[in-house]
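Retro notes, structure queue

What went well: the backlog is down to a handful. What didn't: a couple of records were mislabeled last round, so from now on we paste the full input next to the output in the thread. Example, using Sec-independent protein translocase protein TatC from Microbacterium marmarense:
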Amino acid sequence: MSLGAHLVELKRRLLIGAIALVVGMVVAFIVTDPVLRLITEPIRIVAESRGEGSAVELAFSSVTAGFDLRLRMSFAIGLLLSAPVWIWQVWAYIMPGLTRKEIRYTIGFVGAAVPLFFAGCATGLYVMPNIVSLMATFVPEGAAAFYDAIYYYDFVFKLLLFVGVAFVLPVFLVALNLAGIISGRAILQGWRIAIIIAVVFASLATPPADIATTLLLAGILTMLFFAAAGLSMLFDRRKAKRDAAFLASEAPE
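Corresponding output:
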């Protein structure tokens, strides 16, 4: 294909992906209420723990805050709903230039990364009530706890996104190993640095006073790192056996 044909094809793929995103956002706009109830459950838990007479509410501080919140939620949910379409468009655009081996590796990478990302989001959703409840304990008795809706949503969204991406990072290590950039033994030798990074990331993603949640998140990230290192070493061993068998077959009798 010529450069002009590539640009036309890219424009067509982007247009299809954009249409799918808009449709996903329209559908998502309808289901924002149950999603909002889910992510604001920690606020209701805090309200029950503080008892009657304590003001603990989700606050909308401007005239358009309610619409802005729904629009942000619709974009995030619509992006997930339309993911099969726009991911396929990206894949279909680059696939003609890939070898069969690269296609197989890419499918394996996506097949591992997507479940891990959602597992990370689920973990973030699991630890979020502990974070909100813990932070609420620092509000003085008799004081009102009003959670700005936009800020609260941004906090939840960033927490789920960061934890989701952190769960996918071990897949990148395996991908680098398959590409021959780093060996499994080299990955394993960096376990001390990996543990430090896991603890620092968990500390940043969770409140400093919530030690249990920090250790839980750091432990999960550490286990994923060792799983990536073990899988990479297994791939290295298989590659070494294939190379040895090839050299033996090529050796003169």
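Agreed that this is the format going forward. Reviewer comment attached to the example: The beta strands are 56-59, 145-148.
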